[in-house]
Structure to design on (632 residues):
C-alpha cells in the first residue's frame, strides 16, 4: 500500500472501553465510503466508550477530512461516546470549533405545510390580487393617456422619440424580412394544393387575403413582442433593481406617465404602420414564388392580387396591429414594473412579457374575430 | 407642535406573514441625525421603505409633523412623501438622463420655476454636494461616490425637511465615505434638515449620529436606543456592545 493513501484505522481496547482511531496519509479529496462506514459502525456498535483520535501520520488534509470528523462528532454525541480530539493538529481543531460555533438559525420564516383547501384558497387570492393589479395598471395607463390628451402629463418628449425610433425604423428590416418569408411559405404551401387543379393562379388571391386579413398583423405582433416587449420589460425591470422606480414613486411621478406612456404611444403609432409594411412584404414574397417558380405572368398575378384585395380585410388587419401594439406595450411595461429586486428577476420579467403578450394576442384575435363575425365584417 | 419630526407608533414591518419587526415605537427629533443600526437582514431597509411611505406597514402608523402618513389619502400622502428626500443605496439616478436632468425632474414636476431658474437651482444643488460642472454627465460616466452625491443633490432638490439614507457609505472608500459624512453633517447643520440614516459604518455612527435605535432580528424589535456614544459607554446588552465595538472588548472608546 502506498504511504500516502489515506487510512482510518480503528483499534478497540475492550477492557478499558477505549477506541483508538488513527488517521494516516493524505486526506485530500477523501471519499472512501467503506472507511467512513467502518468508522461510523465502530462508534454506533460501542456506545458509552471513549474515542481517542490520533493523527501522527496525517500528512495533509482538506475539507473532506473535516466532514469525516464532523460526522464523527455528531455520531459520538448521539451515542454518548466521549471523544478526545486534542491530538489533532491545531488548525484542524480550530476549523472544527468554527463549524460548530454557528449559533444562528434562519429567521423564523415559518414554512407551514398547508392542506389542499388552504392552498386552493391562497391560489384564488393570488389570482384575484394579480388580476386586480393588472387591471389597476391598465386603468392607470389609460388615466395617463387621458392626462396626455389634456397636456398635463409628466413625461419627456425625448423618451417618446427614442421609443418611436426603436420600435419603428429600427424594426423595419426584421419585420419586412420575416413577412416576406411568410408570404413565400404561404405561396409554396398553397401552390402544392392548387396546382393539382391547375389553379395555381389563385396563389395570388390566397396570399393577398391571408396577409392583409391577419398574417401581417400576427407576424408583426410576434416579432415586436420578442423584440420590443421584452426590451420594455427589461428596461423597466432594471430600473426596479436600481431603485429608480422607488425614486420616481417618492417624487410622486406616476410610472405610467413617465415610463409607460412614451413606450405605449410609440407602439400604437408604429404597430399599424409595421402591419402595413408586413402586408406588402408578404404579398411581395408570394409574388416572388408565383412569378419565378409557378410561371404566372406578372400582370396576371397582379390582377388576381388586386381582385382579392379587400379594403375591409385590410383595415381589419391594421386594426389588429393597433390592438397588438397596446397588448405588447402593456405586457412589457407591466411585467417590468412588477419585477422583483434581484438581477434574475429582469430575465423573468422579459420572459413573462413575451409569453403573456403572445397569449393575449391570440386570445384577442379570437375574440375580435367572433365579434366581427357577429357584426358581419 | 412637539419637536418630534417623525413619530412611529406600534409599527409592524414585514412581507405577508413574514414579520421582520413587531410593534416598534420611536420618535425622531426635529433636526437630529437619527441612526438606524442592526445586523444584515434585520429589516432596516424595509423599515425605511415604510417610513418613507413606499411600502405599507403590516400594522401601526407613521406620523410626520403630526400627520398620519399611513392612513392619509393618496394626494395628502404624496405631499407628505415629498417632504422627504431619499438617497438610495445605489444612488438610483435615471440612467437615460444627465445629472442636471435628474435633479431638474422634481423641480419641473412640482414648482413653477422658469427653465433659467431651474438651471440655476440645479447648479446650486450640484455645488452643494461638490459636483460643480458635472451637469451634462450621465450617471454611467461618474464614479460610485459621485453617483451618491448626485443622488443626494436630487434628494435635496425640493428642499426637503427630512433626508433618508440607506447605507450611504456602502461601497465607498474610507475617504469618500468620510466626505459624504461631512456633507451630511453640513446639510443637517446649515439647512436644519432632519436626517435618518441606515448604516453599519461605526465611524459614521459615532461621528454624526445624535440619536439611534438598534434593531435585533431575533427580538423583532428595538433592543437599544439613544445617542450612540452613550450607548457605547453604557451598552444595554451584549449584542449592542459587540456591534459597536466590532466584537472587540478592548476597542477604543471614541474621544
Ligand atoms: N419584497 C420582499 N418580499 C419578501 N421578503 C423581502 C422583501 N424584501 C426584503 N425581504 C426580506 O426581508 C428581510 C430583511 O430585508 P432588509 O429590510 O433589506 O434588511 P436589511 O436592510 O436590514 O439588511 C430579508 O430577509 C429579505 O429577504
Ligand atoms: Mg438594506
Amino acid at each position: 500500500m502506498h504511504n500516502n493513501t489515506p487510512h482510518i484505522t480503528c483499534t478497540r481496547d475492550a477492557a478499558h472501553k477505549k477506541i483508538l482511531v488513527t488517521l494516516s496519509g493524505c486526506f485530500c479529496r477523501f471519499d472512501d465510503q467503506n472507511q467512513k462506514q467502518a468508522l461510523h459502525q465502530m462508534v454506533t456498535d460501542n456506545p458509552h466508550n471513549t474515542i481517542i483520535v490520533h493523527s501522527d501520520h496525517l500528512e495533509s488534509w482538506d475539507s473532506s477530512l473535516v466532514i469525516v470528523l464532523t460526522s464523527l462528532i455528531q455520531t459520538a454525541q448521539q451515542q454518548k461516546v466521549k471523544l478526545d480530539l486534542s491530538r489533532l493538529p491545531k488548525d484542524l481543531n480550530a476549523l472544527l470549533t468554527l463549524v460548530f460555533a454557528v449559533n444562528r438559525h434562519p429567521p423564523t420564516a415559518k414554512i407551514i405545510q398547508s392542506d389542499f383547501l388552504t392552498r386552493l384558497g391562497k391560489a384564488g387570492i393570488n389570482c384575484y390580487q394579480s388580476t386586480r393589479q393588472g387591471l389597476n395598471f391598465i386603468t392607470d395607463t389609460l388615466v395617463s393617456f387621458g392626462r396626455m390628451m389634456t397636456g398635463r402629463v409628466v413625461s419627456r418628449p425625448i423618451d417618446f422619440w427614442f421609443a418611436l425610433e426603436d420600435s419603428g425604423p429600427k424594426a423595419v428590416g426584421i419585420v419586412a424580412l420575416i413577412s416576406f418569408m411568410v408570404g413565400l411559405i404561404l405561396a409554396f404551401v398553397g401552390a402544392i394544393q392548387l396546382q393539382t387543379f391547375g389553379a395555381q393562379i389563385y396563389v395570388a388571391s390566397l396570399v393577398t387575403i391571408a396577409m392583409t386579413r391577419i398574417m401581417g398583423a400576427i407576424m408583426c405582433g410576434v416579432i415586436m413582442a420578442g423584440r420590443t416587449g421584452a426590451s420594455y420589460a427589461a428596461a423597466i425591470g432594471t430600473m426596479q433593481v436600481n431603485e429608480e422606480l422607488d425614486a420616481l414613486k417618492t417624487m410622486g411621478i406616476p410610472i405610467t406617465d413617465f415610463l409607460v406612456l412614451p413606450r405605449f404611444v410609440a407602439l400604437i403609432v408604429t404597430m399599424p404602420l409595421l402591419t402595413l409594411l408586413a402586408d406588402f412584404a408578404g404579398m411581395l414574397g408570394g409574388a416572388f414564388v408565383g412569378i419565378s417558380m409557378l410561371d404566372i405572368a406578372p400582370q396576371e398575378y397582379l390582377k388576381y392580387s388586386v381582385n382579392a384585395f379587400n379594403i375591409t380585410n385590410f383595415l381589419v388587419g391594421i386594426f389588429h396591429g393597433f390592438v397588438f401594439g397596446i397588448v405588447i406595450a402593456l405586457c412589457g411595461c407591466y411585467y417590468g414594473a412588477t419585477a422583483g429586486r434581484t438581477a434574475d428577476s429582469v430575465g423573468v420579467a422579459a420572459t413573462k412579457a413575451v409569453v403573456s403578450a403572445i397569449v393575449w394576442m391570440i386570445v384577442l384575435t379570437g375574440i375580435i374575430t367572433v365579434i366581427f363575425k357577429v357584426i358581419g365584417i | 407642535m412637539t419637536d418630534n419630526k417623525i413619530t412611529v407608533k406600534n409599527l409592524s414591518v414585514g412581507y405577508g406573514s413574514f414579520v421582520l419587526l413587531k410593534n416598534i415605537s420611536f420618535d425622531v427629533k426635529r433636526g437630529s441625525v437619527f441612526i438606524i443600526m442592526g445586523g444584515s437582514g434585520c429589516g432596516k431597509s424595509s423599515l425605511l421603505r415604510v417610513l418613507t411611505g413606499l411600502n405599507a406597514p403590516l400594522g401601526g402608523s407613521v406620523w410626520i409633523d403630526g400627520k398620519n402618513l399611513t392612513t392619509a389619502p393618496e394626494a395628502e400622502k404624496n405631499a407628505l412623501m415629498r417632504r422627504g428626500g431619499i438617497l438610495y443605496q445605489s444612488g438610483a439616478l435615471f440612467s437615460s438622463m444627465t445629472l442636471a436632468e435628474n435633479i431638474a425632474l422634481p423641480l419641473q414636476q412640482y414648482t413653477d420655476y422658469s427653465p433659467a431658474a431651474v438651471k440655476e437651482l440645479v447648479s446650486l444643488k450640484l455645488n452643494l454636494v461638490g459636483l460643480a460642472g458635472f451637469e451634462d454627465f450621465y450617471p454611467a460616466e461618474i464614479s460610485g461616490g459621485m453617483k451618491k452625491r448626485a443622488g443626494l443633490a436630487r434628494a435635496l432638490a425640493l428642499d426637503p425637511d427630512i433626508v433618508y439614507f440607506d447605507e450611504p457609505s456602502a461601497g465607498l472608500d474610507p475617504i469618500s465615505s468620510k466626505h459624504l459624512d461631512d456633507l451630511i453633517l453640513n446639510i443637517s447643520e446649515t439647512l436644519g434638515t432632519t436626517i435618518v440614516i441606515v448604516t453599519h459604518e461605526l465611524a459614521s455612527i459615532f461621528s454624526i449620529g445624535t440619536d439611534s435605535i438598534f434593531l435585533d432580528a431575533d427580538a423583532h424589535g428595538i433592543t437599544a436606543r439613544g445617542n450612540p456614544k452613550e450607548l457605547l459607554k453604557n451598552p444595554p446588552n451584549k449584542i449592542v456592545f459587540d456591534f459597536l465595538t466590532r466584537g472587540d472588548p478592548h476597542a477604543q472608546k471614541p474621544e
Notes: Chain A has two domains: 7-99, 156-375. Chain A touches chain B at residues 107, 109-110, 154, 159, 162, 239, 242-244, 246-247, 249-253 (CB under 8 Å). Residues 22 and 99 of chain A are 22 Å apart (CA to CA).
